[in-house]
């Protein structure tokens, strides 16, 4: 056994365990084992029944509100197992402070987290709170609703149905996110060159409806990752990264992000990939495994998610992860997902056909451009094997019809052919 997010060891009883009780009651529950060393060795307690009464009195006297818990004595080793349930009446405070688990440690929550706990205890989401600005317009949202749903009129009644306007005629934070004035953090897009020190393009989409920000993010993508390939009299649109996967990643970042922190969604674009980072980790009640499987979805911003669903921008049942994976079904490269406490990152690599190549052949093939011919000297500077081996690999790729050549002698250059 080892300590973790839902398990803590205590060799004896001191008031410090009450912080962990607060953390477990606020976030998902957990167990504290008394009579166990930091190394996970059972050392036992003298008079465990009396110690249970001591634990019970400390919790009842020092925690507010009183959390749900149970105590059990393991007779075999005189260890006390304190199980704390996740509570509904958050925040659970010890000495007027709320706590959470950070891996195997217990730490005090900050002001933002405390506000979230208060709202959760009242069964209120941030997006439901009254907007600071009550002078809002919805031109972009109205146009999108009329186009998608064929509405004849877009008025206050529609805004009330969407949950953006209360019966008293007041807008909430969800309305602010969708309004033309856009008073919350937006999307920061950067296209990098050979390193993050070289910024080729920078777009900060902010101060407008989040729907307009999504459209702008997609337009930047189309400019940089889509091109037309002409063959004879036909034109073929090529997406180096699946547009469906990109739109899904950005739309999900908008719908599931935390809106109560002053951080933008970050979209980092490179030659070989796009990274979309959303502020806020997983919502309470869903594990990383459940998130990645796409079999369960908990909506952090249900009002916003409902609007996006009505507009056809997301699916209702949280299938975003599955749709992103499906866009790469025929690709040798696959999307990656990184989940941290305060962010979720989705990496969308450039599509790669599964050509059955060796690792070295794949490396050389990936370095080649489908548009710009490259000399062998330029390629050699980017691989870690000899010129003769590189020449042999290029000959193999040319023979397989995967690489085409132009020029001759010292002017011989290579580019990707059509798989």
From TrEMBL:
It comes from Rubneribacter badeniensis. This is AAA family ATPase. Residues 3-109 form the Schlafen AlbA-2 domain. SUPFAM superfamilies: Winged helix' DNA-binding domain. InterPro entries: RecG_C_sf, Schlafen_AlbA_2_dom, Schlafen_AlbA_2_dom_sf, WH-like_DNA-bd_sf, WH_DNA-bd_sf.
């Amino acid at each position: 056994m080892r300590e973790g997010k839902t398990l803590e060891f205590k060799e004896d009883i001191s008031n410090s365990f009450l912080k962990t009780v607060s953390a477990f009651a606020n976030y998902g529950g957990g167990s504290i084992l008394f009579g166990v060393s930091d190394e996970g060795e059972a050392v036992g307690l003298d008079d465990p029944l009396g110690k249970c009464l001591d634990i019970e009195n400390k919790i009842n006297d020092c925690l507010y509100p009183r959390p749900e818990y149970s105590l059990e004595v393991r007779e075999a080793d005189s260890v006390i197992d304190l199980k704390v349930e996740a509570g509904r009446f958050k925040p659970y405070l010890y000495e007027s402070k709320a706590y959470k688990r950070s891996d195997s440690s217990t730490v005090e929550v900050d002001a933002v987290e405390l506000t979230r706990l208060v709202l959760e205890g009242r069964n209120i989401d941030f997006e439901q709170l009254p907007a600071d600005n009550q002078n809002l317009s919805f031109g972009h949202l109205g146009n999108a609703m009329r186009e998608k749903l064929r509405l004849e009129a877009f008025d206050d009644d529609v805004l009330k149905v969407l949950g953006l306007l209360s019966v008293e005629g007041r807008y909430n934070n969800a309305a602010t996110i969708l309004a033309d004035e856009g008073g919350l953090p937006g999307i920061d897009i950067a296209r990098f060159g050979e390193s993050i020190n070289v910024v080729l393009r920078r777009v900060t989409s902010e101060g407008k409806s989040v729907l307009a920000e999504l459209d702008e993010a997609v337009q930047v993508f189309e400019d940089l990752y889509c091109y037309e390939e002409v063959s004879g009299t036909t034109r073929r649109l090529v997406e180096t990264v699946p547009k469906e996967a990109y739109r899904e990643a950005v739309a999900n970042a908008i719908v599931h992000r935390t809106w109560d922190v002053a951080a933008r969604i970050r979209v980092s674009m490179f030659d070989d990939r796009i990274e979309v980072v959303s502020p806020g980790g997983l919502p309470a009640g869903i594990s990383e495994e459940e998130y990645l499987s796409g079999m369960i979805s908990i909506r952090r911003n249900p009002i916003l998610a409902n609007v996006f669903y009505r507009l056809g921008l997301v699916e209702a049942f949280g299938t975003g992860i599955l749709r992103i994976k499906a866009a790469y079904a025929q690709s040798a490269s696959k999307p990656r997902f990184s989940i941290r406490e305060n962010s979720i990152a989705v990496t969308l690599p450039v599509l790669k056909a599964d050509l059955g190549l060796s690792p070295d052949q794949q490396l050389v093939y990936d370095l080649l451009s489908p548009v710009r011919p490259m000399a062998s000297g330029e390629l050699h500077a980017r691989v870690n094997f000899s010129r003769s081996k590189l020449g042999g690999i290029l000959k193999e790729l040319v023979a397989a019809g995967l690489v085409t050549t132009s020029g001759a002698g010292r002017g011989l250059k290579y580019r990707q052919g059509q798989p």
